[in-house]
Amino acid sequence: MSAIVFAGSAQFTAISILAQGGGAGAAVAAAALMNSRFLPMSAAVGPSFSGGPIRRALKGQAVVDHSWALSSRGDGTFDEHLLLGASAIAYVTWVSGTAVGALWGDALGDPDKLGLDAIFPAFFFGLLLNELRSRRARGVAALGTGIALALVPFTPAGVPVLVASLAALVGLTRRARADVRERQEAEGEPR
Amino acid sequence: MSTGAMTIVGCALVTAAIKAAGPVALGGRELPTWFTSVVILLSPALLAALVATQALAEGDQLALEADTGGVAVGGLVIWRSGSIVACVLAAATVTAALRAL
Questions:
Q1: Which ipTM value was assigned to this complex?
Q2: Domain ranges of chain B
Q3: Cα separation of B42 and B39, whole Å?
Q4: Closest by alpha carbon to B96, among A38, A108, A151, A71?
Q5: Percent of chain A with pLDDT over 90
Q6: pLDDT digits (tens, 9 = 90+) for A43-53
Q7: CB within 8 Å of chain B, chain A residues 94-153
Q8: Which residue of chain B has the CA closest to A148?
């Protein structure tokens, strides 16, 4: 599963639904919901990829949270090579880690006992800190947090995070757009 | 096909389609300002929501648990030191220690 889906949160979502006794349809739907964030993410990266439609579609497969966030230049463009490189490393470690876990997982004992479940949020926290340079970004992060936490008790897993992305619509305000335009002009028409 | 296999194949197809759609539909075109403006803010919104739900939610409940403390310490570490490795190690260690209590 790690080798062909390559989207951790969706994999975990699908598996937890199967574990609760849900069917394949429900598991795939939830995973798709969880993965729908890749739609705006890969659309954002699209113009930064070189090559024809097929090559870009293939490169789009490399988009995952960390490589996407790492390669973002913060002005709406992305470092294509950094993204592909980061994803290649992540892919190898993700697949080999899954294999190690499947083969020797029982020997490790309970991963919760080792605190391993705290690693993902801590890692995302580090990436988040990088993104909070502007006051607007901090406001959006707070809004996204609020939306997500408010929805947790009422919606299936995955939905709160998805809806929280609506906080980014703050970017539609006239002030936000003016700031983007100003920055693009200051940098001399990026790409 | 078993339920597990169907889930895996289904996830693979859906994920590939989603990831391919963006670059093909928009590739090579200049993005409108409003789009760029929203996309810049997408990652703080999504990352904050991921951190909050992973650290504070257990299933459909909000709960302060060991991993909440671990992530908080990890956040402090990266804020002070800037090292993501130290942050992740601290988060896991504190979470494990709190659970061992």
A1: 0.70
A2: 1-30, 33-100
A3: 5
A4: A108
A5: 1
A6: 666 666 666 66
A7: 112-129, 131-132, 136-138, 140-145, 147-149, 152-153
A8: B49
Amino acid type, A127: L
Written as one letter, the residue type at A167 is A
Q: How many CB atoms lie within 10 A of CB A46?
A: 24
Question: Which two tokens mark B32?
Answer: 């409108």
Q: Which amino acid would we find at residue A15?
A: I
* CB contact set of A78 (below 8 Å; sequence gap of 6+): A44, A45, A48, A68, A71, A72
As given in the structure block, the two tokens for residue A138 are 């901090």
Give the mutation candidate from B9, B35, B42 for the A interface (greatest A CB count, under 10 A). B42
Cβ atoms of B84 and A119 within 8 Å: the answer is no
Residue A71 CB contacts under 8 Å (≥ 6 apart), including other chains: A45, A78, A79, A80, A82, A83, A86
